[in-house]
Amino acid sequence: MTTLSEKPSAPSTRQVSKRVSQSVFDGSRLRVVLLVDVHDGAQQQFLEAYEQLCNQVAQVPGHVSDQLCQSIENPSQWLITSEWESAPPFLTWVNSEEHVRMVEPLHSCVRDTRSLRFHVVRETGGAAADSAERRRLQTSPRIGDGVIRHALTFTVRPGSEAEVKRILADYASPRARVDETTRLCRTSLFMHGNRVVRAIEVRGDLLAALRHVARQPEVRAVEEAINPYLEHERDLNDQESARVFFTRAALPAVHHVTADELTEGERLARYYPARPGGGMRLAELLAQRDEAAADDPDSPVLRSTIFQRDDVVVRLLDVRPGLGTQAALAEPGHLAGLEALLDGEPVGMDLVTDRRSPDA
Fold first, then answer.
1. What is the value of pTM for the model shown?
2. Where are the beta strands (DSSP E) in 167-243?
3. How confident is the model at residue 6, as a pLDDT?
C-alpha cells in the first residue's frame, strides 16, 4: 500500500528512440494468437482437424510449441497460441501454399478467425529461466504511429494491363470511416508489368477495415470489373473462393521506418524480384539499410515500408518532394551485397492511384 509520505518511484532515465519503426526482424521470439469461432455442434470435428494440423505444424522449421484452449463460458470459442523462434519463419510458413492446403480441413467447421502476432518483450516463470540465447526477447519497445500497413498483390493476364489500369484508376473512393475506432487513411495502387500492388494504411482494426472495404459497392464494382482479366480466377460470391484468393494475395508489411513525420513526400514504389527462397532475406537486408538511412539527414527517403511474400518484395517510399523519381531512387550502395538475392534489376512501379482520406 502506498501512503502519502512515500516517494513515488523515479521515472526511468533510459532513452528510447522516438523514431517510428515497426519490424519483424528483431530476432526475438514470436507469440501467435488465433481466436477461432467454431460452428455449433462442430467442436469434435474441429478438435480432430486441429490434432492433424498440429502434427504437421510441429515439423515446420522455427516452430517451438502450441496450445489449444476452449472457452469456459462459450464452447464455440477456441484459442490457439503458438510460439516461434522468430517472426520470419512463421511468416514464411503462414504465407505459403503449404499453409493454404494444411488449414483447409478447418474451414468447414469454423465460422470466423482472427490472428494476432506479438514479439515477446518480457516474461516470467519457468521458461524465463532458460538462457538468454535460447529465449531471445525484444530488447526495447518500438514506437508506432497508430497506422497499420498492409498490401495485396495479384497478377492479370498479359495484354490486359492497360484496361486493368484504367479500371483501377477510375472508381469512387469508399467511405473512410469504418466504425468508432477504425478509419481508412490511405490507399496507394501500383502496377509493374502484369503485377498489381495495392497498399493500404488503416488506423484501428485492419480486419474490420478490410471487411468494410470489401462490402462497399464502389470497390465491389471494381473487383467484379477486373475479374475477367485475373490470371487466377476467383468468385467473390463464393466464400471459399474469395478466401483462398485474398489469402494468396496478402503481401504483409515486414518493416516500416519513418525518418521525418512532418514533411509530406512523393509516393513511389520499387519492385525487387527475389531469387527463389531469397525473399525474406532480401527484405531483411533492405530493412537494415532503411534503418541506417533514417539516421542520415541527407537521405531522400522520409518513410519506407517493405512488403514481402515468398519471392515478391516491394518497397513503398515517401521521398522528399522536388527530387524527381530517378534522383530519389538513385541511392549509392543501396544494392551492394544484395546481388546474390536478386533475380533481375529492381524496377520502379507505375503509380495508378494514391488516395488519402481528408482527415487522415
1. 0.86
2. 183-192, 195-203
3. 38
